[in-house]
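pinned: reference chain
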Amino acid sequence: MKRLLMTTAAVMVMGLGLASLGAPHARAAGEKTFALVPKALGVPFYADAETGCHAEAAKIGAKCEFTGPAQLDDAAQISIIRDLITKHVAGISVAPNNPDSIKGVIEAALKAGIPVITFDSDAPTSQRIGFIGTNNESAGATAGDAFVKAMPNGGTYAVLTGGLSAQNLNDRITGFKSKLGSNFHEVAGSPFSCNDDTAQGVQVIQDILSKYPHLHGIFYSGGWPMFAPAAYARALRSRKADLADGKFVVVSFDTLKPQLELLKGGYATVLVGQRPYAMGAGSIDMLNTLSNGGKVPKITDTGTDVVTSANVDGFLAKAK
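pinned: its structure tokens
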């Protein structure tokens, strides 16, 4: 009888163990959720960051929650992070729209025991633990070098940007301008903001070219107008011949597939590419390390790529 009871108990224990292994809710109970919060949803640049986030989370048995405001909105981004604090996610990586307004909620998350890092756009005066993304001032300087090389005699230029308070974009513009000599002259009203909106970006380009028909070049601190390739091509049609002759120059950040195709088609001079997939995947790795009590670097530079008509085919092949 004693042996029979022991055998029955062992079978029950094995059955419980097998049941727990097969129960999805049991597995999920120990699953960590890491949040990736972009400046806004629907921005094509962040699609690769989201892909990297999900892929890396799956590798380590965690979950990536990709969530953000519908458009650039400081208050909405802060509200979303407060919700994530309430849900007590295992870590948050955020691309701050405004580095000053985000400081309070970053502090609140840290006080709740949730590690916070930034990606793409930094908030260096906040208490964020680390940053992963482009060294924006250095990358801006790379764009400036390309601009000067394409316009050796200088001339008038304009800058297209997203949100005027975005730290990453302002750093790019600073780096860009640091390479321009006294023979370059920025037009009145520049930089022109499109609020990270594609349609607005195209309209801004149209307005700039209409107001300054003899402009020598434009620098885009992000690729927004090029994410609507047909509309963008129409906006640049009047200057396409000048682009081919080097009389008009367009240097833009980002190397998404539509931008590569536009460059190949003669609608841009140089693209300075970032690596958003690495930002998303790296965010998961950093947050997982922090959630396990480890340490991460203060700054992780994901690097840049410079694309011209000479090497665009190689980048297009990878994009496909």
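why pinned: The radius of gyration is 24 Å. The chain has 13 helices and 13 strands.
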